[in-house]
Each structure stands twice: as C-alpha cells, then as structure tokens.
C-alpha cells in the first residue's frame, strides 16, 4: 500500500504527529488468538468462530437491552500482519454500557482458552483503576499499557521485564510476544481480579435492572415508532438533553401542523427507558414550547401529569432529532424517516386503540431517583437500616439504588484507606521508584524552591495563637498562656529550687486541663478504626437500646466525619465545573470515577 501523497515533508523527515487519543466516553475492545500451532488462515477461521459466539451472547443477554449510544459490535480486522477482532463503542453518560461490554468480553473469554482479550477506554487501563488499592507498587500508569489481559475469564497481567533498570509501556507486539513465549509467567491475583470486576459481580441479573418502564402520554406516531424499535428512545432523549437554541427553532412555530410529530392524537402507553435517559428527561425543567401551547391533554392526577410532561419532553426530543441537518446521515434518523414515509404512503398504518391496549402497561417505581439523607448517613456509618415497612420494601427502600449505595461506600472506604496509609509520611505520598516523570525537570524551579525553604521560619507564638483559635478557646486565655510560658522560662533558669519544680508541675497540670477541656488531647484513634472496619465490611449492626444512650453522641460524630467527607469531595468535584481539578485527580488516583455533574433543583 502506497503512502498518501499529501503528507507534509516534515513528516517524511521523521517528525512524529501527536497521537490521537480516544474520544470521551469510549471503550475499545480487542480479541487475539494466540496459538503458535495455528497458521494465519486458521487464526482467521478461529476468530470467525469467536465472532459467531459473540453474536449468540448478544441474542442471549441483550434481546431487549437499550444502549445509550453505540452497541457492542466486533469486526474482523488485520493489523500489523495479525488477524484480530476489534470493536469500539461510545457509551455516553451510561457507565452501565461500558461494564456490560466488559462482562460480555469476559464471558466470551471463558469459551475460548486460546483467545486473549483486552479492554481500554479514554482513561487507559480502567480495570487497573478499579483495582488501584490492590495493585503492586511497580504497576503504575507509566508502564501499565498493554499489560492487562483477560483469558479464560481471569485477569492476567504481564510482569515487568527482568534485567532492566527501567521499564516503559509495552507495544502490542511486545505484549503478544510475552504471552506467546511465556504465558505461565503472567500474574493472576484473585484480589486484583475481584476489585477489577467488582462492577459486574451481579451480571447478568443486573442487565435488566438498567431499564425503567414508565406509562407516558405521547402522539400515536411516536408510540408506533418506539414500538417498532424501542432503542430509538436513546437518540431522542439525547437530542432533548443536549439541545441548544438552534435545535429549539422548529418547536417555536406557531402552527403545530408544520411539525413532523405534531401534538395531536395522544395515547398513553408504557415506554422502556434507560435509567440514565429517564433521569435526564425527568430532572430538567422544560416549559412547553410555542407549538405545544394549549395542546397538552388534561391530567386527572399528579402521576398522569408527570406522564404527560415526560411525554412532551420526549416528543420534543424526537422533533429536534429529525429536524437537525447534522443528524440526517445517522442510522436512527434514516430509519425513523423511512417508517414515517411508509405511513404517509399507506404501506403501514398507525396502531389502533384496541391494538395499543394489548401492549405492555408496565409502570416501574421511580423512587430510585430519590435520596433519603438519613439512610445516606447510615450507609456511610456502615450500619444496618431499620426494618422497612411494607410500603418501603422493594426498590424504594434506602437511598438511591443498590449500585449507588455500593459505589458511595466504596468511595469513602478508598479515601479512608488513602488517608490512613502508614507508608505516607509528612512529605506526602511515598512514590514508588518506577513513578517517574516522562518530562524533563526544571532545575531552576528546584533551586528557587530550595532557597525559599531556607527562608521559612517558625513563629511559636503565632502557631500557639492559631491553635487556640481552632480549639475555640477564648482570646483572653492567650495572656494567661503567655504568663504560664514566662513563668516556666523563669523557673527553668533555677532548677535547683524544689518549690519552683512543684510550681512547674502545677502549671503543667493546668495547661493539660485546659487542653483536655478543649478536646485537643482527645487523639484516641480507636473509635475511628472500628467505624472504618464496619464501613468496609458493610455489615455493621445497630447498637442495642441500652448502649444507644451513652454512645449516641459519639456515633453521631463518627457518622458526621464520613458524611462530611463524601459531601465535601462531591462538592469539590462539582466546583470544577467539568474541568480538571484536585478533587477529580485525587479520586482518580484512588480508582474512583466521579459522575458527570447535574444541577440540583436548588441550584437552578
């Protein structure tokens, strides 16, 4: 294959272009067959068999599944003289889609022992990010690329090369060669594997739990389209959620009849949403646009009114989707327009009321959107929630859904482990020898920093003043403290006098008493460790009524520590407004992937 003729001369002279990273929210998955006994044609045939098995898995587990954006799809390719299966999917705001792909890849690997698979996303080796607390020190981001593989359902890691003073990222060829030559040397740790695959521990049962069914009121044309292919709802929901003033122009027409989906001929039916999409529709305030004014059907109850409102938002999403010129080449839009053409031509007819009554009328409880902050605080403390009443059982019990509770508990647990790291001293985190920086150091900056350090001095009086302010002690005590210090210094000059020694002892006792009253000497870490253990196990028990009287105040303090920790970390991340910042970086180092920010109702 000849090289393109339009490449600038500086590229021909050895200038390397910038490597293009993956788009945001994108996962890449690759499958290789590693068997030295197989010829090139046999490897290709073997990969076709794996591809057929992947399609069987899709039919088995994903019959009614709705993807947020791209679905799971593998294609046979040849790269660098090697046959492989490769796929790439954009999962948008739905991390559930990303982990579903991980589950499918892992299940596929269990069927074919000679198949070696790997997954990566915009963050790189995200399986290692999940297992950050269980990784050996040598395995850091600088050398992790292409070292993590899935084989026989197990997570295997290519070890660092021997007889090398430093190690870098492996290339794909080097990784495949290492697996082929010495597969027995690859590292398999059950602890790392458990952490890495933690989010798919409930699959395949959890697959169906990602959908939410709700009875809403929509035009009959949209009901027909969604009945033909329910997955169209993802594109329409995203068009509504990411709308801009230009996208809203078609909805500002005075005549509703000019719309592709006019607000007429309404019917009520159950629609399947992704949980992410349902939350996006329900959470946003959106008054009816000009073309929908006075067109909404009347509601007999608050629940029906909610269904009408969500149906209006979804209908506007469909209108914006098909009206945007940028979407005309998208597969979903082309298929929707073909369905509408069939209706206009008479080849297809809209469903009748009698037919619609035979459709599903499933209406799920959306209490998983709500958070009870008392349960939130209790979960952080690792305590068991009180027995729920009949009305509270099911999905609505507790705060959010089970996945949200597990992720929150895990975030606090990792942060505590990070803060309680015994290997970290006053100088900060002890970096491993392999945690090198790829960039050159700036010697001038280091020299300036050293000179600044030499100028630093410690003002004992100022420090004492700050400590007393933090402990809440009155300012007038400062003079007495100075007097005590003065007397101690005077007495220290003549240590032979026994009376002076007694006076020093009395002064020390007075100082100790003051510090005890302010709580400055209450440094016993035992309660904190007990609480942390309960949190990590998630099996803490409520104290009996006999102990609750004495310990309730202490327990409340322990709960507040974790509650404030989670709250402050989330608020700090929110304050970054989607950009890089210390909160996101710190949680990323601990393997916690923070969600994208959504405005609270109070902030609107």
UniProtKB/TrEMBL annotation:
Ranges for region Disordered: 380-404, 420-560
Pfam families given in the database record: SGT1 (PF07093)
Entries under InterPro entries matching the protein: Ecd
Signal sequence range: none
Biased composition (Acidic residues): 420-461, 491-501, 547-560
Lineage: superkingdom: Eukaryota
Listed GO CC annotations: nucleus
Biased amino acid composition, Basic and acidic residues: 502-513
Protein name as annotated: SGT1-domain-containing protein
Organism of provenance: Venturia inaequalis
């Amino acid at each position: 294959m000849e090289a393109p003729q339009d490449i600038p001369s500086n590229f021909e002279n050895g200038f390397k272009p910038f490597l293009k990273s993956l788009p945001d929210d994108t996962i890449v998955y690759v499958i290789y067959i590693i068997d030295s006994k197989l010829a090139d044609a046999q490897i290709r045939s073997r990969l076709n068999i794996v591809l057929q098995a992947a399609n069987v898995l899709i039919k088995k587990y994903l019959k009614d599944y709705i993807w947020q954006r791209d679905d799971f799809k593998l294609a046979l390719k040849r790269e660098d003289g090697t046959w492989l299966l490769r796929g790439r999917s954009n999962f948008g705001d739905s991390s559930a889609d990303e982990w579903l792909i991980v589950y499918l890849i892992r299940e596929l690997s269990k069927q074919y022992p000679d198949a070696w698979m790997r997954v990566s996303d915009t963050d790189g080796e995200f399986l290692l990010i999940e297992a950050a607390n269980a990784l050996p020190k040598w395995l850091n981001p600088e050398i992790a690329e292409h070292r993590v593989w899935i084989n026989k359902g197990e997570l295997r890691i290519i070890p660092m090369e021997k007889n090398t003073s430093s190690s870098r990222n492996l290339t794909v060829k080097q990784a495949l060669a290492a697996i082929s030559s010495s597969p027995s040397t690859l590292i398999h740790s059950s602890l790392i594997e458990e952490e890495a695959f933690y989010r798919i521990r409930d699959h395949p049962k959890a697959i169906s739990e990602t959908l939410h069914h709700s009875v809403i009121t929509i035009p009959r044309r949209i009901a027909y389209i969604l009945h033909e292919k329910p997955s169209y709802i993802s594109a329409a929901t995203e068009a509504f959620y990411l709308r801009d003033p230009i996208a809203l122009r078609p909805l500002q027409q005075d005549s509703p009849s000019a719309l592709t989906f006019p607000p007429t001929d309404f019917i009520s039916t159950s629609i399947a949403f992704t949980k992410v999409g349902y939350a996006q529709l329900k959470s946003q305030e959106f008054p009816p646009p000009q073309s929908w004014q006075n067109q909404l059907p009347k509601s007999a109850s608050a629940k029906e009114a909610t269904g009408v409102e969500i149906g209006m938002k979804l209908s506007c999403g469909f209108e914006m989707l098909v009206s945007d010129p940028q979407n005309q080449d998208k597969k979903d839009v082309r298929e929707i327009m073909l369905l509408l053409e069939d209706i206009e031509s008479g080849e297809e007819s809209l469903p009748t009321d009698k037919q619609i009554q035979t459709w599903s009328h499933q209406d799920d409880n959306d209490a998983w959107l709500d958070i009870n902050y008392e349960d939130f605080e209790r979960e952080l403390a690792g305590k068991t929630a009180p027995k729920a009443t009949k009305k509270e059982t099911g999905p609505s019990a507790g705060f959010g859904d089970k996945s949200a509770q597990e992720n929150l508990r895990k975030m606090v647990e990792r942060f505590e482990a990070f803060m309680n790291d015994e290997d970290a001293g006053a100088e900060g985190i002890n970096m491993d020898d392999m945690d090198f920086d790829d960039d050159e150091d700036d010697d001038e900056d280091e020299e300036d920093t050293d000179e600044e350090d030499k100028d630093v001095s410690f003002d004992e009086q100022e420090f004492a003043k700050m400590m007393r302010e933090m402990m809440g002690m009155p300012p007038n005590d400062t003079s007495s403290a100075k007097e005590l210090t003065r007397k101690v210094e005077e007495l220290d000059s003549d240590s032979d006098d026994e009376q002076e020694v007694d006076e020093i002892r009395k002064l020390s006792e007075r100082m100790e008493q003051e510090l005890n009253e302010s709580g400055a000497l209450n440094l016993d870490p035992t309660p904190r460790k007990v609480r942390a253990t309960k949190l990590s196990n998630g099996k803490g028990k409520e104290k009996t009524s006999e102990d609750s009287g004495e310990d309730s105040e202490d327990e409340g303090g322990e709960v507040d520590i974790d509650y404030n920790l989670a709250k402050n970390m989330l608020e700090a991340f929110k304050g970054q407004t989607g950009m890089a910042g210390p909160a996101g970086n710190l949680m990323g180092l601990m393997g916690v992937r923070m969600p994208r920010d959504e405005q609270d109702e109070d902030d609107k």
